[in-house]
Amino acid sequence: MRQGDEEQIRALYDTLMDGWNQGDAGLFASVFTEDADLVGFDGHRLQGVGEIAAFHAMLFEKWLKGTTLVGCVRSIRFITGEVAVVHAVGNTKLKPGRPPTKERISIQTLVAVIQDGRWKFAAFQNTRLRPMSESGTNALLWM
Question: Is 59 helix (H, G, I), strand (E, B) or coil?
């Protein structure tokens, strides 16, 4: 691990957020490696930076136009000097001026790698947070 690596990875995540918040699919996708994998909250898998950009361009033009993404990196664990696992939480605000709803909270797992001397995300998994409760309410929703 080099000095400043953690800050660079956090800045990369911030760029991802900025891309979403500006509705800029190119900026959003710019943080990924050419062969990156992205799995959305619904299980949809996107392969490669081109597919990630195209899919998000469609989202930003239609269903998620004007939405904002809020979130933060919770932890970074370096597997090697050139690979790190990042955990973050995120939430999409559908309407300006309103707080995000707890139903849209997601936990995100990202794999960061050094490519051409810069950190990039090689994988991104976004999962809606639906912890099981003692009452079993969420278990019924899953079934």
Answer: helix
> Helices 49-61 & 5-21, crossing angle to 10 degrees?
40
Using alpha carbons, list the distances in angstroms from residue 19 to 25, 35, 57, 98, 138: 6, 19, 10, 20, 32
Buried (b) or exposed (e) across 32-71, using 16+ Cβ within 10 A? bbeebbbebbeeeebebbebbbebbbebbeeebeebbbbb
Give the mean model confidence (pLDDT) for residues 28-34: 98
The two three-digit tokens of residue 123, written as one number: 């994988």
Q: How high is the pLDDT of residue 127?
A: 85
Confidence grade of residue 133 (pLDDT, cut at 50, 70, 90): low
Q: How far apart are CA 51 and CA 94, in angstroms?
A: 23
The pair of structure tokens assigned to 21 is 């918040």
